[in-house]
Specification:
The chain has 232 residues and is of the alpha/beta class. 40% of the residues lie in helices and 16% in strands. The protein has a seven-stranded parallel beta sheet, with helices on both faces. Strand 6, helix 6 and strand 7 form a beta-alpha-beta unit. The chain is globular.
């Protein structure tokens, strides 16, 4: 994988940071995207200035994320893979009850759905040039209905997004992988959820690298990874 270039959104912590470390150790050059560049500066320094680029961009802001992709190509000369990983949650979201102001949902929908779509749209021209690879972080919650969860709804949208892009990419050499983690120990989890079986960020990073390590003739469409003991 030496000299392949991977852009990762949501790279400041959790799945994004774990994937960046594992990818860099496997020979990738990595562009680390977070809302603020200073959030990934220390990780970029850890991975080495020749191998990592720290970028600030809100994935829900088209000029910002398209600019981050352009900066990556300018710095490294190409883009071989993009991981649309950035995502946030707002906890329980009842639709027919006295939920807090539903306008609080807007940042989550913008980040999880529009942010993934914007990242794909920004990266695909460069990925077509390299016959590259698009990865998107979905969720088991995007495969099984979750009561009172707009987060689950956003991940169902991501499932559809990955399928739509895969069909559009036929004939270009671009591969699309949807990674669906089960319960994972990240900032999104509540204290109650942390008492249940959980994956670690490194577990999902290994799934991402598995997909990226396949030969060009193999398109790993979807990976679902749950902690041992999680039912749905």
């Amino acid at each position: 994988m030496d000299d392949r270039v991977l852009l990762i959104t949501g790279a400041s912590r959790g799945l994004g940071a774990a994937t960046a470390r594992l990818a860099a150790g496997s020979g990738f050059k990595v562009a680390l995207v977070a809302r603020k560049a200073e959030s990934v500066t220390s990780l970029a320094a850890e991975l080495g200035e020749d191998n990592a680029l720290a970028l600030g961009a809100d994935v829900g802001d088209w000029p910002a994320i398209s600019g981050a992709v352009a900066a990556t190509v300018e710095r490294f000369g190409r883009l071989d893979a993009a991981f649309a990983n950035a995502g946030i949650g707002v906890g329980t979201s009842f639709f027919g009850d006295d939920d807090p102001d539903p306008r609080a949902w807007e940042p989550m929908v913008r980040t999880n759905v529009l942010g993934a779509a914007y990242t794909a749209r920004a990266a695909l021209p460069a990925l077509r040039e390299s016959a590259g690879h698009l990865l998107i972080t979905g969720s088991v919650a995007g495969r099984y209905i979750r009561n009172a969860s707009l987060y689950s709804v956003t991940k169902w949208a991501v499932t559809g997004l990955a399928g739509a892009i895969r069909e559009e990419a036929v004939g270009t050499g671009v591969r699309v992988t949807l990674i669906n983690p089960g319960m994972t120990d990240t900032d999104i989890l509540s204290d109650e959820q942390r008492k249940k079986p959980n994956l670690h960020a490194d577990d999902i990073a290994r799934a991402a690298l598995y997909a990226l390590s396949q030969p060009p003739s193999v398109d790993v469409n979807e990976i679902m990874v749950r902690p041992t003991g999680q039912v749905l």
